[in-house]
Amino acid sequence: FYGAVITPDSLSHYSAYPRCLLCVGASGDIDWLAEDVHDSAVQDVLAQHGAQDAAFVELKHGEFLMPGFVDTHTHAPQVPNIGSGGQDELLDWLSNTTFPMEAKFADVDFARRAYSSVVRRFINSGTTTCCYYGTLHLEATKILADIVHSYGQRAFVGKCNMDRSSPADYVEPSATASVAATEALIAHIRALAGPPLVQPVLTPRFAISCTPPLLTALGALARADPSLLVQTHISENVAEVAFVRRLFPECASYADVYDRFGLLGARTVLAHAVHLDDEEVHLVKERDAGVSHCPTSNFNLRSGICNVGNLLDHGIKVGLGTDVSGGFSTSIITAIQHASTASKVLAFQAPAASLKLSPPALIGAPVVPTFSGRQLPLATLLHMATLGGAHVCGLQHRVGSFAQGKAFDALLVDLRDSAGNLGLWGVDGDRELGIGEGARGTLGAMLERFFFTGDDRNVRRVYVQGRWIGGAEQRR
Ligand code: GUN
Ligand code: FE
Questions:
Q1: Complex ipTM, two decimals?
Q2: What is the pTM assigned to this prediction?
Q3: Closest ligand (CA of 77)
Q4: Ligand 1 pocket member 73 (CB < 6 A)
């Protein structure tokens, strides 16, 4: 690939190379990249690497490559419910809207039809790594894993563990049965052929839906196999937190429930974390658990606003989650927009802090390393959507940014319209967007435009492990 490349470095910095030459090997890993290569030198650099015969993609004006999105929390069986039930808060929404839909996945034919289109939709949204919750059903969740595997997406797939506080027709009969089905799913996923892009994940739905014997058994599974990821919900909604405190009076907090059962560790993905108290924040940091920030869902179900800046200031790993269908979009772009809005709402609720900390809004400018009380900068939004999410699910050495030896999980973003024009941007002309001018500012402007005005039409190609698996160009 030759052209503009944007990749995160840290929470505060990203790199933007207008004339990057990036070479992907047969394994799908990045063989090498040369950050700044003039047009006239491309053939020479290729020859130096013995890559003169490689298939060559030259990016056009208005296009750039960036790492694929990591969705650290979503529910595949809830996609058919997108856009309904938003009048309720969490616990009523689960009873009225969510559990009835999930119960339908007892029918494997329904599951196969639904999941085929669901996974396609996540891929075309630009999600290259996805942490999926299935339903409680073993067979349907195997089908979900099979479809993800066959489409070539990188993912974690878990079946919900839930043996209480659920409807009679949508609950597991016992902790033993729940654990047996979980073990069967793990074995099924690990037996899938080829490179292990799909991995199993333990999925105790949330403390409310799991009896202590079930949590104990899942904690034992996690301890016995430290490679297993764990995903669950925490402290999303005030009524939910109160319910957890009633169910587990012996525990000091919601976070302490997971900790006592051995489910709070460096490979735990905690969705929401809206209402954590200070001690819980410290506990989450101490255990090195990660947080999936799901702002679209937190707004839509009126759960609250997660103070992500505070979590980042405490050094907690944070990624973004769509949390469909609490969230009404399969796209991490929507999560980015709402993460920005959430941080701005918190900033104007804390005017003193934000006045003190906000530098002028220079795109791509270095930021002070303090995130609470101010709007999240572009660099931080990019990080949470990619490398931060990779950290949360333990894949930071494989994906989330471009570096030699990492997997080529990437988006070819195209800001032009279907006629190949840059629309209103074209009015400003080449000066504004000129590839070749080299400033991080111009590519930063493209990235910001993509995040705040883009959608799946701009996600032209989606690559996972070097393989082109989706995007708008395949639909044309
Ligand atoms: N808590 C327990 N289950 C769920 C779910 O499906 N969605 C959300 N947003 N929160 C939950
Ligand atoms: Fe969720």
A1: 0.99
A2: 0.94
A3: 1
A4: no
